[in-house]
Write a structure and sequence with these properties.
The radius of gyration is 19 Å and the shape is globular. By secondary structure, the protein is mainly α. The longest helix has 17 residues. The protein folds into 2 domains: 97 residues, Fumarate Reductase Iron-sulfur Protein, Chain B, domain 2 (Orthogonal Bundle), CATH 1.10.1060; 75 residues, no CATH class. Pfam families: Fer4_17 (PF13534).
Length: 187
């Protein structure tokens, strides 16, 4: 039986940081379970959304930042839509995922790799270059043959460009990344 000693494990600063970054008051959650009931990915989660919210109220930083659910969340916002207290649960999930990334925790490495490849593509071109995204993802994960059947269907339809097309205003996107890098101390 898992027993949590709240005196030892409650991280008040973690709760405050999530509330500050998300703009949400997590104490408003009274565990009705609507978020979990509406989530299309609940069956794949190690922690259902309502347990994530309860863990957050209990200040369980390590358990939450290590859970797979954060990386599997599609941010479809069903949880937010169904919340009777108007808590933006999807934003909380995003904040937790960003905190997990900063803490170096990614129990779903393929999902993190895909996210990284996506963001790299946007950084370079101002938009997603799908072929480059998939090439980078496959190179980083070694999953070279996983989607061959799809590519055989898509390539003849010319739905994937072979060369990137930069957008007008690409510099504005670059400035967003620069501001983020400065904020995170990466420059």
């Amino acid at each position: 039986m898992n027993v949590i000693n709240m005196k030892e494990s409650y991280d008040a600063e973690f709760v405050r940081a999530v509330e500050r970054e998300s703009g949400q008051n997590v104490s408003l959650c009274y565990q009705c379970g609507n978020c979990t009931a509406g989530c299309p990915y609940t069956e794949f989660y190690d922690l259902p959304v309502s347990r994530i919210m309860r863990g957050l109220q209990a200040g369980q930083r390590d358990a939450l930042l290590s859970c797979r659910s954060l990386w599997l969340c599609a941010t479809c916002e069903s949880c937010t839509t169904r919340c009777p207290n108007n808590i933006d649960v999807a934003t909380i999930m995003d904040v937790l995922r960003h905190m997990a990334r900063k803490a170096g925790k990614a129990p779903e490495p393929a999902v993190k790799t895909f996210c990284d490849a996506f963001l790299d593509s946007v950084r370079r071109h101002g938009r997603v270059f799908e072929m480059g995204l998939m090439t980078r993802y496959m190179a980083r994960t070694g999953r070279f043959l996983s989607d061959v059947d799809l590519s055989l269907k898509v390539l003849p339809k010319r739905k994937l460009a072979m060369r990137p097309h930069d957008i007008v205003g690409k510099e504005s996107i670059a400035r967003i990344y620069e501001r983020y890098d400065r904020k995170e101390g990466k420059q």
